[in-house]
Amino acid sequence: MEALIEKAARDLVACSYAIALTGAGISTESGIPDFRGPEGIWTKHPEAEREAYRAYEKFTIDPKSYWEERLNPDNPFRKLFSEMFRDVQPNPGHYALAEFEEMGILRCVITQNVDGLHMKAGSKNVIEYHGSLEKMRCVECGSRFDRDQFDLDRLMREGKLPPRCEKCGGIVKEDGVFFGEPIPFNVMEKSEAEAAKCDVMLICGTSAVVTPFAWLPRIARQGRKAIDIASGIPSGERAISTIIIEVNAEPTPLTSQGVSDYLIQGRTGEILPKIVEQVKRTR
Q1: CATH code of the domain containing 166
Q2: φ and ψ at 118, to 5 degrees?
Q3: Same domain flag for 170 and 238
């Protein structure tokens, strides 16, 4: 493992544009359960999984009833999710990625997680691919708002649900992307652009099997055209191979299919800080 950590440090020091993809594996180390593991949310609460698969259809058919059900204090799923994310804090893996950004090595984190822990750790350029629990989003114009901009309980008492966008009057939903809901176009477009221009991609705590997020390593694997990073203008040179590094507890399809160059197997909260320290020694 130490040899791979040294290799990752050398690759990061030599790169011009590194990004990271993160998934549930980095958040479970902060105490947030995954969904389908032995102690996962869906494993322990299969009724919650069924409800999650129905949520987007309910919202699109009758957003008023959806919000009334969602805000009902007796709704067991409201309590389940509020308890799951209560008092969670970033772990050393989150802080390591934030430090990479501060060092000028990591340009962007694209995360599947909705918990906001990357920002709490200090990362600034974060794309929340599946949205955020802390935000709301207008389904018409795509505007995002902090959740506390809406007094949802008051709107419910006054019979003014669903919440409305202050910019266009459109219906507002939670920013988190539901099953069956398309990834917002601007999020997908920006993520694919980041994957296409990186020369190092760190994949941390995700098997990257959920599409369309799973396409991002493959976009990077195809190689990028040499570009001027400052301007984004292609230089016309041949494609440059992107180095893809996995930091995962177990091998993934990215490992077996040759999408990643190498796997550093273990906990992100243990491995990423070691890479940070090695980068400091290597620079």
Answers
A1: 3.30.1600
A2: -65, -45
A3: no
Structure-token pair, residue 52: 């999650």
Number of domains comprising the chain:
2
Angle between helices 2-14 and 268-282 (to 10 degrees): 60
pTM of the model: 0.89
Q: What is the pLDDT along the chain (283 residues), one digit of tens a residue?
A: 899 999 999 999 999 999 999 999 999 999 887 766 666 776 777 777 788 888 899 999 999 999 998 888 777 666 666 666 778 899 999 999 999 999 999 999 999 999 999 999 999 999 999 999 889 999 999 999 999 999 999 999 999 999 999 999 999 999 999 989 999 999 999 999 999 999 999 999 998 888 999 999 999 988 654 444 444 444 444 456 799 999 999 999 999 999 999 999 999 999 999 999 999 998 8
Residues with a catalytic annotation lie at: 130
Do residues 250 and 157 share a domain? no
Phi, psi of 128 (to 5 degrees): -90, 90
Question: The CATH number of the domain where 21 resides is what?
Answer: 3.40.50.1220
Q: Alpha-carbon Rg of the chain, whole angstroms? A: 20
Judgement on whether residues 142 and 27 belong to the same structural domain of the protein: no
User: Which domain covers residue 79, as residue numbers?
Assistant: 41-86+136-174
